[in-house]
């Protein structure tokens, strides 16, 4: 009787695995032998660039460990500028039936969306208003809108 086909297939697969391993080993050895000698060390020059020549020791700058500040230095009350979240602008479009509109900021001329839920006073087009900004789903929204 002849051997089953399954046994023949197993032997072929095993031969293919062995052949693949040998080829991989040969490629690995070839890469090792072809390895070109490159730069063993890399230095950083005074401009922050990587170079293969060592820096000049005469240009070395001494730094005291006490002078190095880790973290953010504490700010005093006089250092901080006062931030006013209230902005001023003009209503460029408002549809009271749909309950939304747009306000143009006086400082940077950007348009901000506003919804009836963020409006305190009744507004109409071309009214001067004050408002605050809040991050919405599609960008910054004008909230706490009051007529000036």
- pLDDT averaged residue by residue: 87
What overall form do the CA principal axes indicate? Answer: flat
Number of strands: 7
Strand order of the largest sheet: 3-4-5-7-6
Taken as a percent bin, the fraction of beta residues is 25-35%
Query: Which secondary-structure class do the elements indicate?
Result: alpha+beta
- Extract low-pLDDT stretches: none
What string gives the helices and strands in order? HEEEEEEE
Give the helix tally.
1
Specify Rg, calculated over alpha carbons. 36 Å
Question: How much helical structure, as a percent, in the residues?
Answer: 10-25%
Separation of the first and last Cα atoms: 103 Å
* Largest sheet descriptor: 5 strands, mixed, barrel
């Amino acid at each position: 009787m002849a051997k089953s086909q399954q046994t023949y297939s197993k032997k072929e697969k095993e031969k293919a695995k062995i052949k693949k391993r040998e080829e991989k080993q040969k490629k690995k050895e070839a890469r090792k032998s072809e390895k070109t000698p490159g730069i063993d060390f890399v230095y950083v020059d005074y401009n922050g660039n990587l170079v293969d020549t060592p820096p000049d020791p005469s240009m070395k700058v001494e730094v005291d460990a006490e002078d190095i500040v880790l973290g953010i230095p504490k700010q005093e009350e006089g250092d901080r500028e006062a931030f006013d979240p209230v902005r001023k602008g003009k209503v460029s479009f408002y549809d009271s039936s749909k309950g939304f509109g747009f306000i143009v900021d006086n400082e940077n001329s950007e348009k901000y969306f506003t919804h009836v839920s963020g409006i305190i006073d009744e507004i109409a087009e071309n009214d001067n208003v004050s408002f605050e900004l809040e991050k919405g789903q599609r960008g910054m929204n004008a909230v706490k809108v009051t007529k000036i």
